[in-house]
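Async update (no meeting this week)

Hi team, since we skipped the sync, here's where things stand on the single-chain job. The sequence we agreed to prioritize is pasted below, unchanged from the tracker. I ran it this morning and attached the output directly underneath so nobody has to dig for it. Comments welcome in thread, and please keep replies under the output.
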Amino acid sequence: MRQPKGFVDPTLPTAVCKLHKSLYGLKQAPRQWFQKLTNFLQTRGFRFSRSDPSLLISHHNNSQIYFLIYVDDILVTGNDQDRIQTLLKDLHSNFALKEPGQISLYLGIQVQQTSTGYFLTQEHYVRQLLSDSGFTDCKESPTPLTPKSKLQNSHEQDFDDPSLYRRLAGSLQYLSITHPDIAFATNRICQHMQHPSVHDYHALKRLLRYVKGTISFGLPITKGDLQLNTFSDADWASDI
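Output:
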């Protein structure tokens, strides 16, 4: 290593230039950014949620503010608009942030505001998934699973492209955030990601065909009764 031409220091010929590299893009950048931002929030009364380390909550009398962080994407909500605006001004004075306003898209999830609440959908994500997998013009399936369950056979032929199977299965797993109707079928597909067979891939294709017919499905968030109901799925130990 030597000094570049035009920047040679005759008094220090053996010295080299010190590179001032931006933190952005380095492996430790997300951790450092998260640490700096959360320290800032904690000095202003925020505390980490016990259920999600990316969620910080501030309670003051009857005022509540929720601050969700995912790398450099931030979501702020609460029941005190004045405190939220004060917090945003404080953030702008300490960090270089962009504030697009009301939420419409967050981590690939579209948020539509309705007269009764919110509607979460991943329609754009579904269309991109179907396009990447070649299922844009496929025939729709009425159900995510076949009515009859088939036990895994150790002599079944292995699928010739396991990486494709894993990529599609992972994409469907993320889609289940707003499509709880595919959660069970996706879980069964993900159980065979290590050594998928041709039969497993057929099950994955059926699920993609079901998703094609339910593109507009989503998750509504509305005001309602806060009573919690539980349900038991008694399937007799999967005995068909």
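Quick observations from my side:
The chain has a mean pLDDT of 87.
The longest strand covers residues 63-70.
Reply here if anything looks off.
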